[in-house]
Amino acid sequence: MNPETSPSSPQILIVDDTPANLKVLSTMLRGEGFKVRNALEGQSALEAVFSSPPDLILLDVMMPGLSGYEVCQRLKADPQSARIPVIFISALDDALDKVRAFQVGGVDYIAKPFQLEEVLVRVRSHLTLDRQRREIEALNTNLLVKNAQLEREIRERQIAETELQQANEELERLSLLDSLTHLANRRRFDAYLEEQWQTLGRARLPLGLIMADVDFFKRFNDHFGHPAGDECLKRVAQALRLGIHRSADLIARYGGEEFAVILPMVDESGLGTVMESVHRQIAQLGLLHPGSSVAPTLTLSLGAAVCIPSPGDTGNTVADLIESADAALYQAKQRGRNQSVLAPNRSSEEGVGQAK
Questions:
Q1: What's the predicted TM-score (pTM) here?
Q2: Are strands 207-214 and 300-307 parallel, antiparallel or unpaired?
Q3: Which domains does the chain carry?
Q4: Can you give the pLDDT at residue 174?
């Protein structure tokens, strides 16, 4: 393809009121493969620029009507043409004229009479600079887009990680809950009891434990059916929550119809108060229990024990505390159910033996 008509060839607008200058410059630039348009005065130059912006403008200073300075000022004031490089060509060779040319936005200044080789070198130089500027701007724009995309992906990742963490925390929480009663499950009970055993043992503070069992629960299930039995256990769990208030206390479903309560820093008197509160809450439920031999409504048997833990030595153990509370619960059942039994403190006696 002829370079004069190649779509990729840079387009240059020459503005000069001297036809001879236009002809010389046009011939030289076309011969170098540039597209060239001409304008004889300022107003037609502006119209040519706004109808089809060129890649570079060679602009004479002294012209009838609008001067080259005025034309350049208008071009730089319009966003459509502000970035087009303008090279002034003028017979004015005073330093102030050159300064003004740069002040109004020109990128270069060539004095007349000009040398064609000089014009060509400057034209190519400024076209190259302008192309590099546009490439850098495009790269910067692309970088900004990629940075924005990366920031968005980072935010999305952070949101996803937060949601995943919350989901994992929820799964962990659910893994520690009994699915029926929403009390702590046996896994949570064992871990919390061991945690409190170690903590209170170092501080030499008491740890209390209550074991509770629904009286004649099998008869309740046989009479009302298992769905009613499940609802009964839920109601018992609610009553336990109402009867036990401290945030440090942990209520757990120990297994089947059996419940357990861990009470840090509670002595024998405190355990008695808590068990009385539990009995009151269960009585207030008023759940009919035709199969019970001790009351017309649902009741609990409670066994409790308290000790000062001795972690890390040959003294009492977690198992000893559970055994004492469980043995006390067995005694409550043996004595007729619907009552509480507190195991003797192991620090003063051997404790209650376990019997099943």
A1: 0.57
A2: antiparallel
A3: 11-137 (3.40.50.2300), 186-342 (3.30.70.270)
A4: 73
Closest CA to 55 of 143, 107, 131, 2: 131
Token pair 């393809």 is found at 1
Share of the chain above pLDDT 70, in %: 94
pLDDT at 330 over 90: yes
Give the 3-state secondary structure of 110-126: EECCCCHHHHHHHHHHH
**Residue 54 CB neighbours (<10 A):** 21
Using DSSP's 3-state secondary structure scheme, residue 262 falls into strand
CB 256 within 8 A of CB 329: no
What size, in residues, is the chain? 356
Show the CA angle centred on residue 264, arms to residues 259 and 269, nearest 5°: 85
pLDDT of residue 170: 77
pLDDT of 315:
67
CA distance 41 to 63: 6
Read off the pLDDT band of 11 (50, 70, 90): very high
